[in-house]
Amino acid sequence: MVESKFYNSKQNNNSTNNIKKYIKKFVTKVLITIIITLILLITFKTNEEFKEQFNKYIYNTSLPFTNFKEIYDTYFLGTKDKKDTKEVFDETLTYSNASIYEDGVKLSVTKNYLVKSIDSGIVVFIGEKDKYGKTVIVQQMNGIDVFYGNINSNVNMYDYVEKGSLIGEVIDTNLYLAFQKEGKFVDYKEYLK
Q: In the chain, what are the domain boundaries?
């Protein structure tokens, strides 16, 4: 009986110690976060160069959502190396004419042409873009943002789209494509092979 009381009191002490350790870790993390936040706020308030660089990075570049997905797939799902994606459409991008348009290319396609995703990625924009009309932007896993212009979309914001899956349908007979990497438009010819 005495041994049982001793064992129970020892278990209670261990659980109390564990709770104290968790609370101590939590409070430490909160304090570190507060300190880092205060340092950043003071630096942001007093240093104009830091403020300009911060604003340039946050407001002028797009967040690489695909990097987050890659990290998530690797560490939480363990699927980074699995190549089990299959194209929904088994056809290549077909068009009768290609001409330079704004920062990308204008492709002449058939009426009601179904636009497929050039590569896997995350939808980061759906809406109107000047000179492109209704536009869907997909941030591909390779870091390229693809603008699909002049289409009625079949996707939602932050949808993950596989290579070859349906993005939308062309509004008339023109499809506008533009390719952007790290905020700068790049030559479309490399991506329309």
A: 2-60, 97-190
The label of the residue with tokens 């699927």 reads 79
Distance from C-alpha of 156 to C-alpha of 176, rounded to nearest angstrom: 19
Identify the CA nearest to 143 among candidates 119, 176, 125.
Answer: 119
Q: Does domain 97-190 have CATH number 2.70.70.10?
A: yes
Structure tokens at 157: 């914001």
Cα dihedral sign, 65-168-113-171: negative
Please give the model's pTM, rounded to 2 decimal places: 0.60
The mean per-residue pLDDT over the stretch 91-112 comes to 87
Closest Cα partner for 102 from 47, 169, 154, 179?
A: 179
Between β-strands 174-181 and 184-186, what pairing exists: parallel, antiparallel or unpaired? antiparallel
